[in-house]
Design a protein that fits this description.
By secondary structure, the chain is mainly alpha-helical. The protein has helices at about 10-15, 25-45, 50-70, 70-75, 80-100, 105-110, 115-125, 125-130, 135-150, 155-160, 160-185, 195-220, 225-230, 240-285. Helix 2 (about 25-45) packs across helix 6 (about 105-110), helix 5 (about 80-100) runs parallel beside helix 14 and helix 10 (about 155-160) crosses helix 11 (about 160-185). The chain is globular.
Amino acid sequence: MVALTVPAATDAGTVLAQWRWDPVTVAGMLAAASLYALGVARVRRAGGRWPAAWSTWFGAGLATFAVALVSPVDAYADVSFSVHMGQHLLLTMLAPPLLALGAPITLALRASSPGTARAITSALKSHAVSFLGRPVVGWLLFVTVPVAVHYSPLFDLAIRSRPWHAFEHASWVSVALVYWWPIVGRDPSPHPVRYPVRLLSMFLAMPATSFLALALYMASSPIYPAYASLAAPWGLSALGDQRNAAVLMWLVGNLGMMVAMLLVAAAWKRDDDARQRRLEARADGLEPAGV
């Protein structure tokens, strides 16, 4: 059990001072950034090219993790359900797709020795990765785990216990990575997902999010005892804070999914345009001279 010692959010200075420099979290993010930078350097030293935009996406994903897990967001998630909800949205809706857009597996394959690259390829072909890479598996995990966690003792326990809180975060992130990697990622996948299936997957995920948000909003009393025993740091009642969390889940969650759908649709159009240009160029090359 941990003591909730976060000071009341009386002013911006008080809030911004509540950083949590957990050594394991910070070390993990620094290690990921260092390995990625080392991989990019190796690819470029070998004469290859690595898009700067991909590095930017990956860096943005790590920065999102820092906001969620090191900044005052993590501190005030202990005493405010709405902040906790915002933290979960960062960990599931923003950081994982940004990391996926950075194509870290592709980078590892290109930067590694032949033996290591073969080992990575073998792991990608394993039964476990093949199973998790199926679109329906990722979708089921993405829509059912949040419901299971929110309506189990784990959520309330995670508010009181830092180790369980870390386990909860690991669960959210793992499920989100499994879902988003084939939807927006550039890395090789055992089951490449066609663009219509990607759009359908995201479209069908929105009702599940809305249902959970509605259930939280319509509750007549606070669901979690840990929050019910506290006042939110800005003076709201526990029930009012819970309803704010529900609105945040519904609004930001569905808006984020709609933005992702628009980006995937745009990528689909770009790929179709590029394919059409290749076909036209090939046809032009086969035309008899002077025609």
